Structure formats: C-alpha cells, structure tokens
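[agent] plan:
  1. take the single chain provided in the ticket
  2. run structure prediction with default settings
  3. attach structure tokens to the ticket
  4. add a short note for the reviewer (M.T.)
[agent] executing step 1
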Amino acid sequence: MSPSASSAAGAEAFPEPEGTAASARDFSWQIAPATRSDHTAIFQFLTAVFQGPSWDEFRASLEAPWYEPGRRLLGVSGSQIVAHAQQLPRTMWFGLAAVPVAALSWLGVLPQFRGRGIGRRLLAASEQAMARRGALVGLAWTRDPRFFCRDGWALWGPRYLSQAGTREILAALAARGLYPRPARRLSIRPWRRVELAALVRIYDQNFAAAYGPLRRGEACWQWLVERRGYDQLYVAIHGRDRAEGEEFEVPIVGYAAIRGQRIVELLTDAGHPGAAVDLLVRACGDAIEGDRYTIGLHAPPGHRLHRLFRAATDGQTGLEPDGNEVLMAKVLHPLRLIRTLGGELHARARAAGLSTPASLGLKVDKRTYRLELTDEGLQARTRSLGTDYLSLGAADFCRLLLGYLDWEAALCARRVSASTPSALAVARILFPRLVLWHPLLDDLPAQV
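[agent] step 2 finished; step 3 output follows
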C-alpha cells in the first residue's frame, strides 16, 4: 500500500536526518483523530506531500467497507495539518488461521516540519491505535524500510513480477501445443456485475489456506469492482455462455484483472487450471492490439505461468521483486498472535510427526514466551523458558511467527541461537519458511 501510481494507499514515512532536528519547542502540535469535516484538508495535505492520490481515488477510499475517519491520525499545529497516518483494518489468511491486521498508509509529514520527530511519534501513536482496536499485526508498504526498522518493524518481503514479450509468450505456448488451443472449450469475455459470486468463490478457493492474502467478503468485492483499480476484468467460461437476459448460472472457472501492461490478478478454479492459459492469451492479444509488446504477471511464487514467462525469455528473466517497495510487519500482540496461530502450529507439529508433549521457549529481548504442545493442541504463556528455547531479537521474532525467517542466515549471523539441538528442531518444525503472497488488486488506485 503505497503512494506510488501503482497502489491505492501508501505507507511512506519520512526519515529525520541526524543533526538536523529542530527543537520541538519551536512550535506546538498534537495528535488527534480525524473527523469527516477534515476530509478536504486531508486531501490537500496528501496532494502536497505525495502528489496524490487523485480526487477519484480519495473519494473511492472513503467508500471502503472498513473506512472510519477516526482511523486517520493527524498531527495538527493550530488549524494546520502537518502530519497524517491512516490505519486500514483487514483480516489476513494465514494457513488455518484468520489474523486481524491493520495496514499503515499515507504516513507523511509536511517538508517544512520534518526533522522534529513528528513522523516517529505519529508512527508510535498509530501502532498503539492499531493494537487497541484489536490488530495483531501491523503492515506497511514503504520505500524507506530503515525508518520502520528503527521502531522494531521487520522486512516481510516484496511483491514479485514476471515479465516477457507478448509474442514470445505466444511462441512458447505454441511450442507446447497450447496455442492456438485445439477444440477450444473455454470462452473468454469481460466480466458482468451479476457474476460477482463467481469471483468471490474462485478467490476464496485459491487463498483460504494461503499465507498473506487479505480476506475479501462480498462488501469488499463490491467496493473493489466499483472502484475499478483495473482496466479490464475477464472471466473464463466452461461450456455454454449466457446470453443477455438469460438467468441460468454461467460456469465461470477463472478470471484475470488487467491494469496497463500487467496482469495484476489471475486465478482459476481448482478443476480448470488450464483456464490460466486462455486468460493469458487474451491478455497478450489485447496488449498487441494496443501496441504494447511486453506484459507482466503478478501471481503467487509457485504459479506455473511464471515458468512459462521464464521460458519465453530463454531463462534470462524470472520472478523478480516488483520495484523498490517492500512490505514491513510488526507484531503488536505477540501472545495473542501465537494463540491465534495455535491450530496452524499444532497442525504443523502433527504433519511432521513431532512427539508430544513438547515445549519451546522463546526469549525475545527481555520478554519470554513458552509454547507447550500436547495431543489436544497448543498453549502459549509468558512464563519461564524451560531448558529448550530460542534467543532472538524482536525483528527476527516477527519474521519467525510470520514465516519469513531465513533460518540459515539468522543462525550464521548469530541473530538466532538455540539452547539445545532439540529446541532448534522443534522451532524449525513449528516455524518453517513459508510461501507468502500479497495480491496487488487490493492496493491499485481507483479508475472511477
């Protein structure tokens, strides 16, 4: 979620260079929640600091199902807004768990007021507000990760993108006998508003047990399609299509949202993985007709189309980080998050054949946690570590819980240490490196 042209909202903090800080006594200011009467002034502030969003995007953001003016915190001096940050509450799928999260967006300070610690105080106030409202994890897309790292946030990964020439992709498909499709059974056409339930079904089917996607209820989907963060939304239909006015249900087995030269979301029904090829062919055809000869794909890292893109470039390019934005995360309620992940952690232990009872202590700076596994489940407490425990810092603790810890690098750098070999073995079973994915469609700016 960033203030760039490719996202809907942004977490872009401004560093306060050392040696340039002005005295806080130079002026008085306070942090206050926004109200609806502040919207015009907020839009003017965002335009001055970020050169965006557009008025259409700002207006669309006010219609989001989770929007509340009070989730914006303002730094105010007299009648002037000098700083701003917004919290966006969502629910994130994380394997078997549904984790309440909050995305921090549009964190910024007017240029003439930087260097006074305002941004850092607003960040701390936003963290407190997110935690108070029940978020277990804070998220922020940013181009300045160092600002967040100083307050205990941890890198949680970039978005990934594959790119290739459209004609090269079609040639790679032809070499595999997939283009043109013989005895074509699928038809591709623009999505119709009455078919919203199909999008909900396919999205949920793909991501209900994934790590990182945000939940989208029907109200969220309604907002996304009204907001139009995409140029075109196609559906793949298996069997007979419905003519205008007919009422039978169309068998939609996939969809693709396209923005410019990128496929920003492409998902298919589990029984029709081949629909991805038909949707890709349609996207390539549209690109060629529009005199655009390259196309990009945002999809989960393991998606088979990434291999096709690599083949189309003779292995010269592959899955790469998209731009210079990274996702930062901070655990706001450690014990509650561990308990929320209890079912997921217990399932990992059972799948690995871990003998129970078993326990693992976590020593995180000056705090301690104890995880106890039995046949019935997992319990977590703040108590004595026991003999089997890990020692690690807050940032690696965040990455550990959220599946982004590079075990070899952390152990080699001695950022993580284990009291016993058993502690390390249990920790690696409970907290493996996961395949994370954050769909782009939620964050694209409006085109209403």
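[agent] step 4 note for reviewer: The domain at 333-430 is CATH 3.30.1050.10 (Nonspecific Lipid-transfer Protein; Chain A).
[agent] ticket updated
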